[in-house]
Design a protein that fits this description.
alpha/beta, 9-stranded mixed β-sheet, 14 strands, globular
């Protein structure tokens, strides 16, 4: 079975399931709760406290454990009824600037482990990952709107994620990996700036979930001056990000800029308010990269 996973620093996204935080608590005894995984004698529970940023996600087993959770949830969401050992093909991705140097290592991280037995949410699984396709994120997301992009001479895809903001030039629907980079300007940097400012000025410990709620314009039980700090720093963050892109000699005013990723969805109001992107397009599907990985895997197997 083909399963596509976007391993974000902030969230894990698959095609059929709700995104969940890239965070785990490990223990030797079974914790309370339903979203608990047991693998190799250890228990892991999904938590809202994400794993600290790491450029190399293969340094330890945590992103592999998150992958096992994602696989289990996808099997359940799609009502997969296979018996015995389930053969799994993974479609995954990396930021375009890191892709060429790291895609083989990231692929090897998942494969060659034999039959993997584990339990999750009270159900047992036996899987074997027998193939992995790794693809450039951002381009993968843009592929889901290929019919729109194939007739455009030049467009810039900007994927604002947890830790990075990745950009990639698209020419008539094809990605140009000579014009791409990954800037450490993701929303985690914004969270850190806001949390530090609010803690210093208001003596309030603000969570990332509270910041999200403010930016999504939900009702929050917080002082108005805290809300104003969040909104002001977020607008400054977007201004700085767009200025950084200009410093990289990227033209933002004469071509479409396609915003993808959870950060772009979260910060859409501030991006539009900046007035610096006349032709902004927003891909609102947070699963766009995962869907693109699946398309690219299928095309590779057809020789497309």
């Amino acid at each position: 079975m083909l399963i596509s996973i976007d391993h974000g620093n902030k969230q894990i996204k698959t095609i059929h399931c709700a995104p969940f935080t890239s965070g785990l608590v490990e223990s030797k005894s079974k914790p309370f709760g339903s979203r608990v995984l047991n693998y190799k004698g250890k228990y892991y529970q999904v938590t809202d406290r994400r794993i600290p940023y790491r450029k190399d996600k293969t340094e330890d087993e945590r992103f592999f454990v998150l992958t096992l959770i994602a696989i289990a949830e996808e099997l359940e969401a799609t009502n997969f009824t296979g018996h015995g050992v389930t053969a799994v093909q993974l479609a995954v991705g990396l930021p375009p600037a890191y892709y060429g140097a790291n895609y083989q290592k990231f692929s090897r991280y998942f494969i060659g482990r034999g039959i993997i037995n584990y339990t999750y949410a009270g159900k047992s699984y036996a899987i074997q990952i027998n193939d992995v396709g790794c693809y450039p994120q951002s381009y993968a997301a843009a592929l889901t709107m290929f019919q729109t992009l194939k007739d455009i001479p030049s467009a810039l895809v900007l994927d604002i994620g947890g830790m990075t903001a990745d950009y990639l030039e698209i020419k008539y629907g094809e990605g140009d990996l000579s014009i791409c980079d990954s800037l450490e300007n993701g929303v985690i940097l914004l969270y850190n700036q806001i949390e530090s400012k609010v803690r210093a000025e208001q003596d309030i410990l603000l969570s990332e979930q509270q910041i999200d709620a403010i930016l999504e314009e939900h009702e929050v039980q917080l002082p108005q001056n805290v809300v104003e700090i969040v909104e002001r720093l977020t607008q400054e963050f977007i201004a700085d990000l767009l200025s950084t892109l200009r410093e990289h000699q990227l033209e933002l005013k004469s071509k479409p800029v396609i915003f993808v990723g959870g950060g772009s969805i979260l910060l859409r109001k501030q991006i539009e308010k900046s007035g610096k992107i006349p032709y902004a397009m927003f891909l609102e599907d947070i699963r766009a990269n995962a869907k693109g990985y699946e398309l690219l895997y299928q095309l590779s197997k057809r020789g497309g």
